[in-house]
Hints:
The structure is a single chain. This protein is α/β, with parallel strands linked by helices. The protein has helices at residues 18-26, 40-49, 67-72, 75-89, 100-105, 109-120, 135-150, 170-173, 178-188, 203-206, 223-233, 246-260, 281-295, 322-330, 358-361, 377-380, and strands at 32-35, 59-62, 94-97, 124-127, 162-166, 192-197, 214-217, 237-239, 264-265, 275-279, 299-303, 317-318, 334-337, 351-354. The protein has 3 domains: 14-133, Nitrogenase molybdenum iron protein domain (Rossmann fold); 162-265, Nitrogenase molybdenum iron protein domain (Rossmann fold); 275-380, 3-Layer(aba) Sandwich (Rossmann fold), CATH 3.40.50.1980. The protein starts with 17 loop residues before the first helix and ends with a helix.
Amino acid sequence: MSNLKNQTAAFISTYASDTSGVCSALYELGGMTIMHDASGCNSTYNTHDEPRWYDFDSYVFISALTEMEAIMGDDGKLISDIVSAAKELKPKFVAVAGTPIPMMTGFDFKAIANEIERQTGLPAFGFDTNGMHTYVSGAAKAFRAVADRFITDKLGKTSGLSVNLLGATPLDFSVNSSLQSAKELLTENGIETVSCLAMGSDLSEIRRASSARVNLVLSYSGLDAAKLLQKRFGTPYVVGRPCGAFGKRLMADIKAADRTGKNAVGFAGSSEGDILIIGEGVFAGSLAAAIREETGRKAFFASATEFDDGLFGEADVIARDEAELRPLIGKSRVLIADPLYKPLCRGMGIRFVPMPHEGFSGRIFRKDIPDLTRSIAPLLEQL
C-alpha cells in the first residue's frame, strides 16, 4: 500500500480525471453524458480537458446535485431529469459518470442506468468513476462499454489489410494533425482504417469494427476494448502509436498480427538508460522505442497514468507520485515530459526537454504539442 505522503503533489499538477476521460471518449458519438456532481466537474472538463467544446456540439451535462439530494438519496429526481432531457434531445444513448460525492454516498450507477434505459428505450451506461483516477481509467471504461454494446455483429473481414484505431481522444492526441497523420501512414502502407474509437468516427462506422483484420491500440485506454473484440471476434491487436522510426516497426507488427493472429507490443524490451520519458504509457513507450531506433541511445519510460506492467520492458515502470518519480529522474541525464514536470528537475543538473500533454497541462501548451508521427527530429535536436 502506498504511503499517504507519496500521494501528495508538492510541485506537479494532476492528470485529467476519470470523469473527463468518460466524457472525452463519448464526445463524438451522439450520446448524452451526465456528470453526477454539484457543479465544478463540468466547468473543469469543458474549460481544460475538451478542446472540441466550441467547434463540435455534444450533449454533456451536470446533474446539479444538491447537498440535500446527496444526503437523502433522491435518485428519482435525477432519473426524471435525465429521462425528460433524453425525450427532448433524442440522443443515441445515455451515460452517467460519477464524481467524488456519489462515490461517498454509495451511488448505484448500474441500477440507475438500467432504470433510465427502461424508461427511455435508449442504451444507457453507468460509470462508477470518482475523480480519483486519471482520464485513462475513465476512457477505458467508456471504450469497452461502447465496444460491448455496439460492436456485436460478426461481419466478414475486409479483403485487404485493415485496422480499427482504439483509444483516441484529444487528451492524448490533442487537436493537431497527429491522428490524421497516423491514418495517412496506415494508408500509405496499404492498411485501411475501418473505424476510430472514438475521434472522427460515428456509431455507424464503429458498428462495422468486427470487419477489421487487426486492432491498433493507440493508447492504454483502448486496450480493454481490444481484448473484448479479440474474445468476441478473434481479432488480434497491436499496441503502439506511430512515432518516427517506430512507425515502420508498428506497420510490420500489424502485418505480422494479420498473418499469425498473435498480439504484439512493439515498444517492449527497453533497458534502463539515460533518457527518461514520463507520460501516458503507450505514447511514452513508443517514443522511447523511436529514440532507441534512431539514435542508438538507451531510453526508457515511466507511465504516470494507469498501465499494465505486462506491456513493460525490463526497466520501464509505473510511477505516478513525486516520491516515485524523483529517484528515476535523478538517475537520468535527460527528461522528456510535459512542461509542468520541470520543477522536479530542480537542482539535479539534467536536461529537460518539454513534451506538452493535453491530458496533463490542458490547453496551456496546446500550440506547442508536436506531431511526431512521421519524424521525431524536432525532439532529437534538443537531446
